[in-house]
Amino acid sequence: MKAVTVKELKEELTNSTPKELRDLCLRLARFKKENKELLTYLLFESSDEALYIESVKKEVDEQVELINKKSHYLIKKSFRKILRSIRKYARYSQKKETEVELLVYFCTKLKKFTPSIQKNTGLQSFYNKQIEAIRKKVTLLHEDLQFDYGRELDDLI
Q1: Phi/psi at 69 (5° precision)
Q2: Cα dihedral 58→156→119→113 (10° resolution)
Q3: Model confidence over 105-129: pLDDT tens digits?
Q4: Which long-range contacts (CB under 8 A, 24 or more apart) does 131-137 make?
Q5: Which has the closest alpha carbon to 106: 140, 55, 56, 50?
C-alpha cells in the first residue's frame, strides 16, 4: 500500500466528523508508542512547556543514574540512547528553545559524569559534536535567548 500525500490526508480529515477524528486518533495511538507519546504531549503537556521540560530533565536524570560504568563503550552507548530520547521529545515540542534547553542540560550531565569523559577521546568527541550542534541551533533563536544560551555554552566549554 502506498501512502497518500499530506494534502490529500488534510482534505479527507476536513470532511470527517469529530467522532471519526477521535476514533482515528485513538487507533493511531494503539499502533505505535511514539504516536501515543505525541498525543499525550499535545493533549496534556503542550500547555505548560516549562513543566514538560522539567519532566524530560527528570527522565534524563533517571537514565543517567542507570548507566553502566564498566566501560567507555557502554557509557557512550547509553548517552547516545539518552540523546535519541531527548531529540524525540524535542521533536514533539517543535520549539527551538525547548530543544536547546534540553541539549544544554544533556551536555551538562555529560560533562559532570564520572568517570570523566576527558579520559576517552570517543566520549570527548561526542561531547564536542553536541556543543557544536547546540551552537548552530542557538543562532536560530531570538537575540536575548542567543545571549543567555551563549553564556551557558561558554560555561560548558
Answers
A1: -100, 15
A2: -20
A3: 999 999 999 888 888 999 999 999 9
A4: 131/107, 131/156, 131/157, 133/103, 134/100, 134/103, 134/104, 134/107, 137/96, 137/99, 137/100, 137/103
A5: 56
